From TrEMBL:
This is FecR domain-containing protein. Pfam families: FecR (PF04773). Residues 1-23 form the signal peptide. InterPro entries: FecR. Residues 60-158 form the FecR protein domain. Keywords: Signal. Gene3D superfamilies: 2.60.120.1440.
Length: 192
């Protein structure tokens, strides 16, 4: 009986530590052009303004003529373009606890993402057709109305994996790629 109680307490503490690591703010809104919104967990959709906190598991949206810039706790920066949605799936940066992970989903629209102090290969960007693992990168990503993805690597490197075919390739500064349901195609032009 005693061992069961100790095991239950240990499991509860482990869960509490994991929850505590994820609890807290992911970043702050730096600027907003026109109109932008955020829907935090268990909250209603609210208009975002410069200085507003961005939480772990928050959906960020911009109006058809809006834009928003967010600075995350590790110094990474997200610039969300007009008519875009980005979901902060997970964002925790606590190097003193050896906990660091960033996962952002872009279901539609465009964004620019520049990594900060987050360790290399600890930042993942998802789109409907791609999984991108950033390695000290500055990237631009666009998702068109069909869910196809266009990636431009400005700096660093990105491991790109097709979510439908499993094809995987690494792209470096100056390279771009299109990811569609049929796979990965190296590109030099923006996705239409």
């Amino acid at each position: 009986m005693r061992i069961q109680i100790i095991a239950a307490v240990a499991a509860a503490l482990t869960a509490a530590i994991s929850s505590a690591a994820l609890a807290g703010d992911a970043g702050v809104v730096e600027t907003v052009a026109e109109t932008a919104y955020g829907t935090a967990p268990s909250r209603t959709r609210m208009e975002k303004h410069a200085g507003d906190v961005v939480q772990h598991r928050e959906l960020l949206e911009t109006s058809t003529s809006g834009a928003m810039k967010v600075k995350f706790t590790d110094g990474s920066k997200l610039a969300l373009g007009a008519g875009s949605k980005a979901f902060v799936v997970a964002y925790v940066y606590k190097p003193e606890q050896s906990v660091a992970n960033a996962i952002v989903s872009l279901p539609e629209g465009s964004m620019r993402y520049v990594t900060g102090a987050m360790p290399k290969d600890h930042t993942t960007i998802y789109t409907p057709t791609a999984t991108m693992l950033l390695n000290g990168a500055d990237i631009s990503v666009g998702v068109n109305d069909r869910g196809n993805t266009h990636l431009m690597v400005e700096n660093g490197s990105v491991t790109v994996r097709s979510r439908t075919t499993g094809q995987q390739m690494v792209y470096n500064a100056g390279e771009s790629v299109d990811i569609t349901p049929t796979g990965i195609t190296t590109s030099t032009a923006a996705l239409q």
